RNA sequence: GGGCGGGUAGCUUAGCUUGGCUGGAGCACCCGGCUGAUAACCGGGAGGCCGCAGGUUCAAAUCCUGCCUCGCCCA
């Protein structure tokens, strides 16, 4: 091993870039995996981002947590392979292409050509791949992007097909309807985020409709904002617990506005709470009853013949539904099965006929009503209202203002429309899902138990098909009479194509590398067992299905890599934003449960959202998006990563404050670098070899043993915090250690030890200690902020820190701990601080020494007296036990004990304690005879405090060791002697001259010529101190004069008298 | 409308599980000190209806109830 190089200044960006280069040249990432080849695997799965969006700061956050766990586990000795992945299918891709090529409807796409369109999609997927690569590399996210899994690759699709077939064979796949927001103008249904693009406030007619009961004169009143759904009405829903009433119109209404009405004597039924809201007539209440009494009653259809009853027994009857409320309407919900999600679910549940009254073109189908057939539904509101009015079925109309989703492309209102769709029967495996979820270690646990658990308890069947073009095609072929085949591999497809060809179908060729996308797969026609032609169901899969298959499809399982599932499944760790709870976290579990009947991942870290510094969501439109490069190019990736991890718990929302990154840079990294620089510069100068002349720890001074012990303690706690997912606490503690213990105390106290030019034991001890602590800090920091510490570690140890071993597991790897030494040093530091506080209060300059200092109480600090004398600027430190000389006692109540004993009398007892004489009371307490305010007071009820007597400057602090609180006092002697005054004066002058030297930019070694003028008020400067002054300031030639200095001399004041000096 | 989480100093936050001495820290601000020690450090100061309102208790930031508010997810 050779001596380290001198460190140079810290330039984070240049340093990180040079390290990136070094990693590339040395293949450090690959080596970090290879040298763990024999280790136990730790399986990480990368959630695939889509590369057709630019990466943002939130991706940096997620990748930091992915990376740090993988690096940590690697250092621990696990084999952690990291395959990159890309999500390349789905709606966002199609929308991008549609916008670019102005293809605003399905017809336009078909006209353009589906093949060409999909080709455009395939290309557009990679728009930002380079930006992603650069970001990943710059932030040091180690992942294999050269061999990623890609959801559009045939291998991936084939594996997904295989998975679907498993579901199909388990009867978990079925065809049904799903009510979706649909735009008849473009012929497409919309996902929720597209819907969100198009909400508009509109004013529309709403109607209160009278549904005449079959065997009763009364009508039930129902309300709807979509009159066009009324011809499709097949049922009325009431709340079983809601109170309804039957009322009779008792008077004609005056000032009737709009169409509709009711005659005197007519009877209607509605929720009691909404009576005033709805009725425009004076009415008398005939009866009141719960909704359950209405259930089963039949009524006369509004548009007879519009819907075919079919097998349904419940059509045009009242049913009960728990979603019915009395917040608006009449407390009765008109149900048209195909045009509302609640309606559809209710219809399925109670058996209403599932029949469309509206076509895909948005117009009524033939046979509804002569005035409606073939007309666009939104043009029919008026006609329908008139028809109802004419047949006395309308009670009233009311204009209604609400937000309603509109097509973001055409501006037309969307229709909620029941579409053919394929589902995975998740409801059938609900119990297994819950069971598996219980086995997952969630961070934080409330996401698993709460948000995710809640979702699973209410799990619905998963609608996995989309009427789109760019995606994994649904591999189900279907004949007109409903025979179905699900294809699970290319080989099977080829086989089926051959079979069909043999039966006379003319299919295109189906080679081994057939592109599994549309429209190619659409062209294959298969043949059923009974000999009918089968066509592919014209859907693609929800792209969430793709990513849900990633854990096996990334390996092309089961066609290849069987061992990846037998040996490397379930996954050990995944990590994504909390918004993935019902996204990727769910689809992974859904697929693994339905296909493998297994848990999918053992640990899941769910990250909080990233917000701007004001707590607002980052969005392009608000312009508050933080570009990661702003910080990569300024403070660097280390500071960005460390900031993000220390800013809060990973699952809490992160308010990203650019100033926080700067602060991290200035405090943690700059400090660490300067500690390193301090060590490296002297080590380089001295030719220090960390492997030579190692001084055993027990032979090193207390200060060294202390910092080594602290380092051990911090390292162990760091590991515990990591295991508990408390990365933020771990890193905050480490940061505190580096800044306060290591830099501000150890290095500050050790500085002079390295100044000595000759080698000695003390210097060697210090250098080895610095080397060991720095190396340890590097290892601990490496997973979180991998750059700078790699530079430090490599320079000190010759190889990358990322190839080093995590220092925690084996006992011998950490320096010895000495907790009693740690707590003593803590006391020493507190005493040093206390001394400064005493001086401020006593108005005594820090540089003016005190003759004596006494430590009263506490453990033996003999070995630290020298440090304390220096820190406190006291000539002589001693320990004394005679408290009374400096102190008197005070009693302070222990409220916890007294509260239990005295309850409501506590205030009067407290009063009694504070007014009693402490000395005699304490004697009584010890004798067991103390009684105050009627209560017996024992030594447990009070705490004894010692307070300094006047005449000494003193302060008492509490020192805790082994659950015991000890009072320790520091007393300073405040008298001033000529010797002390001289010393203090010398220090003040030295300080000024040193500052001047610094201002002049003088080298540390350089000599100066010095003249000092003392005036009348100054204390005498003794010979010794004058010599010391010359020595410290390297004043080769020095003169001491009396009087006022010339105009070109420097002037300053000490205790109100002036001093002049001049440096040449 | 439902579920989950948050609301503590100008800002970022710790403390809440298990109630108890004066609610702790960092940034920024002011005063002082210290420094051949770095964008550092130390002491002091100012700055807190601990979201609001009730309840439990001798005692509530902490436990309970309701509300307000912000965020996310779902309707």
Polypeptide structure, described:
The protein is built from 33 helices and 38 strands. Among the domains are: 204-405, Isoleucyl-tRNA Synthetase, domain 2, CATH 3.90.740; 659-817, Isoleucyl-tRNA Synthetase, Domain 1 (Orthogonal Bundle), CATH 1.10.730.10; 978-1063. Helix content is 38%, strand content 20%. The protein is of the alpha+beta class and 1064 residues long. Strands 10-8-9-6-5-13 form a six-stranded mixed sheet, covered by helices on one side. The longest helix is centred in the middle third of the chain and has 29 residues, at 658-686. Helix 22 packs antiparallel against helix 25 and helix 23 (702-723) packs across helix 27. It binds one RNA strand of 75 nucleotides through helix 14, helix 22, helix 24, helix 27 and helix 29.
Please write out the topology.
Elements: H1 12-26, H2 28-34, H3 57-76, E1 83-86, H4 91-101, H5 106-112, H6 114-124, H7 129-138, E2 144-150, H8 154-169, E3 173-183, E4 188-189, H9 192-196, E5 199-212, E6 219-224, E7 235-238, E8 243-249, E9 267-271, H10 275-278, E10 283-290, E11 317-320, E12 332-335, H11 341-350, H12 381-390, E13 394-405, E14 415-424, H13 430-439, E15 441-443, H14 445-457, E16 462-463, E17 465-466, E18 476-479, E19 484-486, H15 490-502, E20 526-527, E21 533-536, E22 540-541, H16 543-548, H17 550-553, H18 562-566, E23 571-577, H19 584-596, E24 601-607, E25 610-612, H20 628-632, H21 637-646, E26 654-656, H22 658-686, H23 702-723, H24 727-750, H25 761-781, H26 788-797, H27 819-842, E27 850-856, H28 865-872, E28 874-880, E29 887-893, H29 895-902, H30 906-915, H31 918-927, E30 931-932, E31 935-936, E32 942-948, E33 953-961, E34 964-972, H32 978-1000, E35 1008-1014, H33 1023-1032, E36 1035-1042, E37 1050-1054, E38 1057-1063
Parallel strand pairs: 1-2, 6-9, 7-11, 15-24, 23-24, 25-26, 27-28, 35-36
Antiparallel strand pairs: 3-4, 3-14, 5-6, 5-13, 7-12, 8-9, 8-10, 14-16, 17-22, 18-19, 18-21, 20-21, 27-34, 29-32, 30-31, 33-34, 35-38, 37-38
The structure holds one RNA strand of 75 nucleotides.
């Amino acid at each position: 091993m050779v001596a380290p190089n001198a460190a140079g200044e810290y330039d984070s960006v240049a340093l990180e870039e040079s390290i990136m280069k070094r990693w590339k040249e040395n293949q450090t990432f690959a080596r970090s995996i290879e040298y763990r080849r024999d280790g136990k695997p730790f399986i990480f799965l990368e959630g695939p981002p889509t590369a057709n969006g630019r990466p943002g700061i939130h991706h940096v956050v997620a990748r930091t947590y992915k990376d740090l766990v993988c690096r940590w586990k690697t250092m621990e000795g696990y084999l952690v392979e990291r395959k990159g992945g890309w999500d390349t299918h789905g709606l966002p891709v199609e929308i991008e292409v549609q916008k670019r090529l102005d293809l605003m409807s399905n017809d336009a796409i078909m006209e353009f050509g589906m093949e060409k369109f999909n080709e455009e999609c395939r290309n557009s997927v990679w728009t930002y791949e380079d930006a992603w690569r650069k970001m990943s590399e710059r932030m040091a996210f180690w992942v294999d992007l050269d061999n990623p899994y890609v959801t559009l690759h045939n291998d991936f699709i084939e594996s997904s097909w295989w998975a679907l077939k498993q579901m199909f064979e388990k009867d978990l796949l079925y065809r049904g309807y799903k009510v979706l927001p649909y735009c008849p103008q473009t012929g497409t249904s919309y996902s929720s985020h597209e819907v969100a693009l198009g909400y508009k406030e509109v004013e529309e007619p709403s109607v209160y409709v009278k549904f005449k009961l079959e065997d009763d004169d009364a009508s039930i009143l129902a309300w709807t904002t979509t009159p066009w759904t009324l011809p499709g009405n097949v049922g009325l829903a009431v709340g079983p617990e809601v109170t309804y009433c039957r009322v009779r119109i008792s008077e004609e209404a005056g000032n009737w506005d709009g169409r509709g009405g009711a005659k005197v004597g007519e009877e209607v039924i509605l929720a009691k709470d909404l009576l005033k809201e709805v009725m425009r007539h004076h009415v008398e209440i005939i009866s009141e009853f719960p909704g359950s009494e209405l259930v089963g009653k039949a009524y006369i259809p509004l548009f007879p013949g519009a819907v075919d009853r079919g097998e349904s027994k419940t059509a045009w009857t009242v049913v009960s539904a728990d979603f019915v409320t009395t917040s608006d309407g009449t407390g009765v919900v008109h149900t048209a099965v195909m045009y509302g999600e609640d309606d559809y679910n209710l219809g399925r549940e109670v058996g209403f006929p599932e029949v469309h009254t509206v076509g895909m073109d948005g117009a009524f189908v033939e046979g509804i009503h002569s005035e409606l057939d073939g007309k666009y539904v939104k043009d029919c509101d008026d006609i329908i209202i008139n028809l109802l009015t004419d047949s006395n079925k309308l009670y009233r109309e009311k204009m209604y203002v609400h937000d309603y989703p509109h097509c973001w492309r055409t501006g037309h209102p969307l229709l909620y429309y029941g579409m053919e769709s394929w589902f995975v029967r998740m409801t059938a495996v609900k119990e297994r899902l819950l069971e598996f979820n219980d086995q997952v270690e969630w961070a934080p646990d409330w996401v698993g138990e709460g948000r995710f658990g809640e979702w699973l308890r209410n799990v619905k069947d998963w609608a996995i098909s989309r009427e789109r073009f760019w995606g994994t095609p649904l591999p189900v072929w279907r004949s007109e009479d409903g025979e179905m085949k699900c294809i699970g591999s290319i080989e099977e497809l080829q086989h089926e194509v051959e079979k069909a060809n043999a039966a006379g179908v003319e299919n295109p060729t189906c080679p081994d590398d057939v592109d599994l996308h549309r429209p190619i797969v659409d062209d294959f026609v298969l043949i059923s067992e009974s000999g009918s032609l089968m066509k592919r169901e014209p859907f693609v899969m929800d792209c969430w299905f793709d990513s849900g298959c990633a854990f096996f499809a990334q390996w092309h399982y089961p066609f290849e890599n069987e061992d990846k599932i037998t040996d490397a499944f379930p996954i050990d760790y995944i990590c994504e934003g909390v918004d993935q709870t019902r996204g990727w976290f769910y689809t992974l579990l859904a697929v693994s449960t339905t296909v493998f009947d297994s848990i999918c991942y053992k640990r899941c870290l769910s990250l909080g959202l990233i917000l701007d510094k004001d707590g607002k969501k980052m969005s392009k439109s608000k312009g508050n998006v933080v570009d990661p490069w702003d910080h990569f190019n300024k403070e660097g990736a280390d500071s960005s990563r460390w900031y993000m991890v220390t800013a809060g718990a990973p699952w809490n929302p992160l308010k990203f404050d650019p100033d926080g990154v700067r602060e991290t840079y200035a405090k943690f990294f700059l400090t660490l670098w300067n500690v390193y620089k301090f060590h490296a510069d002297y080590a380089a100068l001295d030719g220090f070899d960390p492997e030579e002349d190692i001084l055993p720890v027990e032979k090193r001074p207390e200060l060294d043993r202390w910092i080594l012990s602290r380092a051990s303690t911090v390292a162990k706690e760091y590991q515990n915090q990591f295991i508990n997912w408390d990365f933020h606490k771990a890193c905050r503690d480490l940061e505190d250690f580096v800044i306060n213990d290591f830099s501000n105390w150890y290095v500050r106290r050790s500085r002079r030890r390295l100044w000595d030019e000759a080698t000695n034991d003390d210097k060697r001890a210090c250098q080895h200690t610095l080397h060991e602590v720095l190396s340890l800090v590097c290892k601990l920091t490496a997973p979180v902020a991998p750059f700078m510490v790699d530079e430090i570690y490599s320079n000190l140890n010759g190889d990358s820190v990322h190839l080093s071993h995590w220092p925690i597991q084996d006992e011998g790897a950490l320096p010895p701990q000495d907790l009693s030494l740690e707590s003593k040093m803590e006391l020493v530091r507190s005493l040093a601080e206390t001394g400064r506080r005493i001086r401020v209060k006593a108005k005594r300059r820090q540089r003016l020494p005190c003759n004596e200092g006494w430590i009263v109480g506490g453990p033996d600090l003999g070995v630290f007296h020298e440090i304390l004398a220096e820190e406190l600027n006291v000539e002589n430190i001693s320990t004394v036990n005679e408290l009374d000389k400096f102190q008197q006692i005070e009693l302070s109540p222990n409220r916890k004990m007294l509260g239990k004993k005295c309850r409501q009398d506590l205030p009067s007892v407290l009063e009694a304690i504070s007014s009693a004489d402490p000395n005699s009371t304490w004697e009584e307490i010890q004798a067991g005879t103390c009684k105050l305010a009627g209560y017996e007071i024992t030594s447990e009820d009070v705490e004894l405090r010692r307070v300094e007597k006047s005449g000494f400057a003193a302060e008492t602090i509490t020192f805790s060791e082994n659950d015991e609180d000890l009072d320790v006092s520091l007393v300073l002697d405040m008298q001033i002697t000529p010797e002390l005054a001289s010393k203090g004066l010398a220090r003040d002058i030295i300080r000024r001259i040193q500052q001047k030297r610094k201002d002049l930019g003088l080298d540390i070694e350089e000599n100066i010529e010095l003249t000092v003028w003392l005036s009348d008020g100054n204390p005498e400067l003794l010979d010794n101190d004058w010599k010391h002054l010359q020595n410290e300031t390297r004043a080769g030639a020095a003169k001491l004069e009396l009087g006022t200095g010339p105009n070109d001399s420097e002037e300053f004041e000490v205790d109100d008298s002036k001093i002049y000096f001049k440096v040449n």
